[in-house]
Amino acid sequence: xxxxxxxxxxxxxxxxxxxxxxxxxxxxxxxxxxxxxxxxxxxxxxxxxxxxxxxxxxxxxxxxxxxxxxx
Length: 71
Fold this sequence. Notes:
The protein is an alpha+beta fold. It is built from 3 helices and 2 strands, in the order H-E-H-E-H. It has helices spanning 11-15, 34-43, 60-70, and strands spanning 24-29, 46-51. It has a two-stranded parallel sheet. It is globular, with a radius of gyration of 12 Å. The protein starts with 10 loop residues before the first helix and ends with a helix.
């Protein structure tokens, strides 16, 4: 999901996720994990935050490596 706005969060979308099919949700964000906590609150599925606070954007290779290391 790529929300267009962070607030209000798409509650209906997250509430409708099937925890039998989805084991983890990875949330890359350029802050200290605030949105990952919101996703956890709504989805009730294991959320793995990937926070980056350096002001630099994520490279696709960083995200791929992070997901591979945390599956």
